[in-house]
Amino acid sequence: MGSPIFMLLNLLLDPDVNKKVVLQMAWSQVKAIGIGKVLAALLSALTVGVSSFIRIPQIRKLLIKTETDRIKVAQGLSLQSLSIDTLNSLVHVVFNSQNNIPFINYGESLLLGIQNAIIILLTRFYRIKDEGELANLRKLPIEEQIKSVLQALAEPIGVMVGAIIFFTKIAPSNLISVLEILNIPISIIAKIPQINANYRLKTVSHLSDVVLKANVVGSAIRVYTSYTDYKTKATRNKTTVDEKILLAGYSTSLVMNSILLGQSIVYDKLGRGKKLKEEEEEEKKKNI
User: Fold this and answer.
1) Which of 72, 79, 103, 203 has the fewest CB atoms found within 10 Å of its own CB?
2) Helix, strand or coil for residue 34?
3) Domains of the chain
C-alpha cells in the first residue's frame, strides 16, 4: 500500500475528485498521526532543506570583494571553533546513523559539516596568503596554482579525510555514544573562541548575519523536534536515552548560537552609534 500522503496528493491532482473531500481526508490523517508529530516532521524536512545552502552567505564573504577584505574575514573567524563544530557534526551524523535515526532528524548536521569544511579550507587559504606563502600564485600556470594550493592545504584536508575514516570505519559505537554525550560541553567550548574573538574585535562583521539568525532558528526547531520525539517515545514507555542526549545537545546549541547573535546585535548597534557620533563631530568641525 502506498503512502497516505502520496495517495492524497494523487487525489488532489485528479480533476474528477472533490478537493474539499480530499482536504478533509488530509486533515483526518493529520489528526490521526498527531498535529505535533506532523509539525515536527515538516520542520525537520524544512531544516534539512534550508541547511543545504545556509552557510553560503558565510562562504560568499570569503569569496567576494577584494582579497584584503577576504583576508580580514578569514582573520576574524576562529578556526578552532570551526574545527570543533565540524567534528561535532561528524560525530552527530555517525551517532544518528548507527542508531538508525531517520536522516530527516539529523541531515542538517551532514550538510552544515560539509559547508563548514569549505569555510575552514578557505579561511586557511587566505591566512596562508596573508603570511606571504602564496604571494606569487597568480604568476604561475593554472596547473601549478592548483598544485601549490593543494600543497598548502594538505594538512587540513588530510585531517578531515582521516577523521571521516576513523569515525565511520574504525571507532567503536561505544566511543561514538560517549562523544555524542560530550558534544554538549564540547559545543560550549567550540563557541567560546569565536565569542572571545568577537569581543576582542568588538565587531561581528566577519560573520554572516543571515547564518547567525538561521543557526538560532535551526537550533530552536531541533529543540522542538527532539522534544516531540522524546515525548512520543516516553508515552509508549520506550527507551528515551538517545532522545534525551539529542535534546540536551540541541538546547545547548540554541543557547550558544543565541549568544553569538546577541553579540551581532549589540556590536552592530554600538558600531552604528559610534559612526554616527564621529560623523556628527566631523560635521561640527566643518561648521566651525
Assistant:
1) 103
2) coil
3) 39-171 (no CATH), 173-287 (1.20.1280.290)
